[in-house]
Automatic annotation (TrEMBL):
<feature type="binding site">
    <location>
        <position position="313"/>
    </location>
    <ligand>
        <name>FAD</name>
    </ligand>
</feature>
<keyword id="KW-0676">Redox-active center</keyword>
<dbReference type="InterPro" id="IPR050151">
    <property type="entry name" value="Class-I_Pyr_Nuc-Dis_Oxidored"/>
</dbReference>
<dbReference type="GO" id="GO:0004148">
    <property type="term" value="F:dihydrolipoyl dehydrogenase (NADH) activity"/>
</dbReference>
<feature type="binding site">
    <location>
        <begin position="319"/>
        <end position="322"/>
    </location>
    <ligand>
        <name>FAD</name>
    </ligand>
</feature>
<protein>
    <recommendedName>
        <fullName>Dihydrolipoyl dehydrogenase</fullName>
        <ecNumber>1.8.1.4</ecNumber>
    </recommendedName>
</protein>
<keyword id="KW-0274">FAD</keyword>
<dbReference type="GO" id="GO:0005737">
    <property type="term" value="C:cytoplasm"/>
</dbReference>
<feature type="binding site">
    <location>
        <position position="114"/>
    </location>
    <ligand>
        <name>FAD</name>
    </ligand>
</feature>
<feature type="binding site">
    <location>
        <position position="203"/>
    </location>
    <ligand>
        <name>NAD(+)</name>
    </ligand>
</feature>
<dbReference type="Pfam" id="PF07992">
    <property type="entry name" value="Pyr_redox_2"/>
</dbReference>
<dbReference type="InterPro" id="IPR036188">
    <property type="entry name" value="FAD/NAD-bd_sf"/>
</dbReference>
<feature type="binding site">
    <location>
        <begin position="180"/>
        <end position="187"/>
    </location>
    <ligand>
        <name>NAD(+)</name>
    </ligand>
</feature>
<feature type="domain" description="FAD/NAD(P)-binding">
    <location>
        <begin position="3"/>
        <end position="328"/>
    </location>
</feature>
<dbReference type="InterPro" id="IPR001100">
    <property type="entry name" value="Pyr_nuc-diS_OxRdtase"/>
</dbReference>
<dbReference type="GO" id="GO:0050660">
    <property type="term" value="F:flavin adenine dinucleotide binding"/>
</dbReference>
<comment type="similarity">
    <text>Belongs to the class-I pyridine nucleotide-disulfide oxidoreductase family.</text>
</comment>
Length: 466
């Protein structure tokens, strides 16, 4: 069996790369060790978490907000198995879509664990049946990432869970401790808080969502606290003790060393993810990894060995599904002789909490550190008509533009629906646009997106509705 391209791993990076390469006329095969395609994202990541975030958000709204709009539904009752059924239906529909796309694009599928035995040769060990060798001119490593462990804390996926276990709990924990105030901690913490858990988030650093724009995150933390989240920042977990009665979690202040003990039914460990290259045989064929375990690439996805490439979570850049997808497209185009490219400075980041947080480009902190002079335009949703009609007035849109040229350098938003709204700024920034371009673009009324236009006007100190 000989191919132009064999892709190991069918997450968003791998399956998209395979499809784009097939579109460009290559003979393509994929190797996947799971029974289903779609990787972390479709099976245990983006998609199931959004299914539960959506359902739990409606559950909470039905309990608190419907009555404010004249809708009486009584006290909503949780049917957790049915909610999990909804989640599974969403997963099944999405993974089935990839089977269809592989067939449509004539991509051959090998189920099993792939190992690179030499440049151009992948050995596939299936769950059942004989080992096969697939030959290809080029090999793509798209094996993604796995949960990072907290030293000394064993994940059993029942009481001490990773995101995977937290998407499958069979009852609502009365007390949940989340270790890590990153994206997973806040999203999955939101799900279980809305369904009735008391959620305490323990974060090592002195702030939540490190790396994101400070002002935006400060506001987010205040809103999350109002919702009932408890935060212990500047704090580390030093141990988790299991007993029949539940879990005892030892924590310690990073600064003072002051120790405390918290009780919980479930601990969610969400302290990041590590690139996954286990068992691939990279070492033996000479593919180098960096000090964080990522495959070293040359900026064009080529590893240190000719004919072996890597994309997605397993290489540098943000560990996000859309980044992995764009890596996949760019690599397929490069292999077809085109000029594939991904600008890692323009990868939007969205935290799908309520309100959502959406970020793009540079933060104020980064601009200050680089000594770049900038103007800030900010517009609150409390002054936006549609947000008022929807009773979602928390948050704002902030645009950062170069003081000298007015070129937009960053956008930071918090509010309902901002995960959709960020993309007009993505397009603008991809074309090197200015705040004035946004400000002079007609936005339909009444929409939440008018806040983007107003924020752009505010860069030049001329917002209309503020
Ligand atoms: P993966 O999706 O990890 O896919 C890798 C695939 O390779 C897997 O299917 C694996 O089984 C397979 N594989 C590994 N080794 C082998 C081998 N030797 N042989 C054969 N197959 C192998 N990102 C977002 O952008 N938005 C979100 O909302 C979002 N939500 C998330 C929520 C959670 C709970 C988690 C955990 C992650 C979330 N992410 C989100 C991150 C996103 O899932 C990843 O960035 C994305 O899946 C990376 O894609 P990938 O193709 O690089 O790898
Ligand atoms: P993360 O990197 O977003 O956050 C981890 C947090 O844990 C950080 O705040 C970090 O300071 C903290 N931390 C690290 N070690 C700690 C310790 N010992 N004790 C206490 N806190 C500690 O990682 P997370 O949330 O696990 O997510 C993993 C990846 O998945 C991320 O790269 C993220 O981009 C991706 N993801 C994306 C989503 C989205 O786009 N909406 C949703 C979920 C995950």
């Amino acid at each position: 069996m000989s191919y132009d391209l064999v892709v190991i791993g069918t997450g968003p990076g791998g399956y998209v790369c395979a499809i784009r390469a097939a579109q460009l006329g290559m003979k393509v095969a994929v190797v996947e060790k799971r029974k289903t395609h779609g990787g972390t994202c479709l099976n245990v990541g983006c998609i199931p978490s959004k299914a539960l975030l959506h359902a739990s958000e409606l559950f909470e709204e039905a309990g608190h907000d419907f009555a404010n709009m004249g809708i009486k539904v009584g006290t909503p009752e949780l049917d957790l198995p049915a909610m999990m059924g909804h989640k599974q239906e969403v997963i099944d529909g999405n993974v089935a879509g990839i089977d269809y796309l592989f067939k449509k694009n004539k991509v051959d599928v090998f189920q099993g664990t792939g190992k690179i035995v030499a440049a151009g040769k992948v050995e596939v060990t299936p769950d059942e049946g004989d080992v096969q060798t697939v030959e290809a001119k080029n090999i793509v490593v798209a094996t993604g990432s796995d949960v990072a462990n907290l030293p000394g804390v064993e994940i059993d996926e029942k009481q001490v869970v990773s995101s995977t276990g937290a998407l499958e709990l069979d009852k609502v924990p009365s007390k949940m401790i989340v270790v890590g105030a990153g994206v997973i901690g806040l999203e999955l913490g939101s799900v279980w808080r809305r369904l009735g858990s008391e959620v305490t988030v323990v974060e090592f650093l002195d702030r939540i969502l490190p790396g994101m724009d400070g002002e935006t995150v400060k506001n987010a933390q205040r809103m999350f606290k109002k919702q009932g989240f408890k935060f212990k920042v500047g704090t580390k977990v030093t141990g988790v003790e299991k007993s029949d009665a539940g879990l005892k979690v030892a924590i310690e202040s990073v600064k003072t060393g002051k120790a405390e003990e918290l009780e919980a039914d479930v601990v969610l460990v969400a302290i990041g993810r590590r690139p996954y290259t286990d068992g691939l045989g990279l070492d033996a064929v000479g593919v180098q990894l960096d000090d964080r375990g990522r495959v070293v690439t040359d900026g064009h996805f080529k590893s240190t060995v000719d004919g072996i490439y890597a994309i997605g979570d397993v290489i540098e850049g943000p560990m996000l599904a859309h980044k992995a997808e764009d890596d996949g497209v760019a690599l397929a185009e490069i292999l077809a002789g085109q000029a594939g490219h991904v600008d890692y400075n323009l990868v939007p980041g969205v935290v799908y909490t309520m309100p959502e947080i959406a970020v793009l480009g540079q933060t104020e902190e980064q601009l200050k550190e680089a000594g770049t002079a900038y103007n800030v335009g900010k517009f609150p949703f409390s002054a936006n008509g549609r947000a008022k009609a929807q009773r979602h007035t928390d948050g704002f849109v902030k645009i950062l533009a170069c003081k000298e040229t007015d070129k937009v350098l960053g956008a930071h938003m918090i509010g309902a629906g901002v995960g959709e709204m960020i993309h007009e700024v993505s397009v603008l920034m991809a074309f090197g646009g200015a705040a004035e371009d946004l400000a002079r673009t007609i936005h339909a009324h009444p929409t939440l997106s008018e806040a983007v236009k107003e924020a752009a006007l505010a860069v030049d100190k001329r917002p209309i509705h503020m």
